[in-house]
């Protein structure tokens, strides 16, 4: 950190905790920055197996009203019986690219890939206690005269919004639902259920007109705050809050 001393004179709030530097894996580590963290909730969550739990969410943010709004939404859901969910899928994609000297070699490679399923699945399993091959993508065969390989061809929607995320989710795909009664809307949200419905339909139309991915109103605020508070990769928020 000594080589950065001249630029860190006024950054003691960042550099005051550097004793655990050997345990940090980032480059040019100089310290930490603090973000206020608040708890939103509780939210009554009803699982597919019939059990239920009340969960809180830590949210790191400097924006006022986000946590209060989340907690008020949780209260409305709780008084309406809570939220339900199902996990539809869980997967992680990569899209390697293989360059060939001619079209015939590329076609031959593509045709041979399905026959490599067992070999690739075994190799993938050997690299992780959790990873399993669920969908096959091309792999390398030396005799096909491959001229170049890129580990990622930008077809996996990692850290970017795309229709690929909508059609084939990357990560965990969850569907969740709840019902809000008019009585709860009036008591907790201070509006009629009919007004809330028409507002949502209006924002849907607005999103369609401007080419928005998904149908939501600033879901990214909440997801980003949770990601930062729990040490997740905040850049993944670009694909996480589609909320379709």
UniProtKB/TrEMBL annotation:
Keyword Oxidoreductase: yes
GO molecular function term, any single one: hydroxymethylglutaryl-CoA reductase (NADPH) activity
UniProt record, GO biological process: coenzyme A metabolic process
Pfam families given in the database record: HMG-CoA_red
InterPro entries noted in UniProt: HMG_CoA_Rdtase, HMG_CoA_Rdtase_cat_sf, HMG_CoA_Rdtase_NAD(P)-bd_sf, HMG_CoA_Rdtase_sub-bd_dom_sf
Keywords: Oxidoreductase
Record PANTHER family: 3-HYDROXY-3-METHYLGLUTARYL-COENZYME A REDUCTASE
UniProt similarity note: Belongs to the HMG-CoA reductase family.
Protein name, per record: Hydroxymethylglutaryl-CoA reductase (NADPH)
């Amino acid at each position: 950190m000594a080589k950065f001393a001249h630029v860190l004179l006024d950054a003691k709030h960042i550099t005051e905790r550097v004793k655990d530097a050997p345990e940090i894996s980032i480059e040019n580590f100089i310290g930490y920055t603090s973000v206020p963290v608040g708890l939103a909730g509780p939210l009554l969550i009803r699982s597919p197996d019939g059990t239920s739990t009340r969960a809180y969410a830590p949210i790191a943010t400097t924006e006022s009203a986000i946590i209060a709004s989340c907690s008020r939404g949780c209260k409305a859901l709780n008084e309406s019986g809570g939220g339900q969910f199902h996990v539809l899928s869980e997967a992680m994609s990569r899209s390697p690219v293989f360059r060939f000297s001619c079209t015939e070699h590329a076609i031959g490679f593509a045709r041979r890939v399905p026959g490599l399923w067992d070999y690739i699945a075994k190799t993938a399993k050997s690299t992780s206690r959790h990873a399993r091959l669920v969908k096959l993508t091309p792999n390398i065969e030396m005799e096909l005269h491959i001229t170049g390989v890129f580990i990622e061809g930008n077809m996996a929607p990692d850290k970017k919004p795309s229709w690929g995320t909508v059609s084939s989710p990357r990560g965990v795909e969850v569907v969740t639902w709840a019902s809000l009664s008019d009585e709860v809307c009036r008591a907790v949200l201070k509006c009629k259920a009919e007004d809330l419905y028409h507002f949502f339909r209006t924002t849907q139309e607005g999103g369609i007109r401007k080419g928005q991915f998904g149908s939501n109103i600033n879901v990214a605020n909440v997801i980003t705050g949770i990601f930062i508070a729990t040490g997740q990769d905040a850049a993944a928020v670009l694909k996480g809050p589609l909320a379709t």
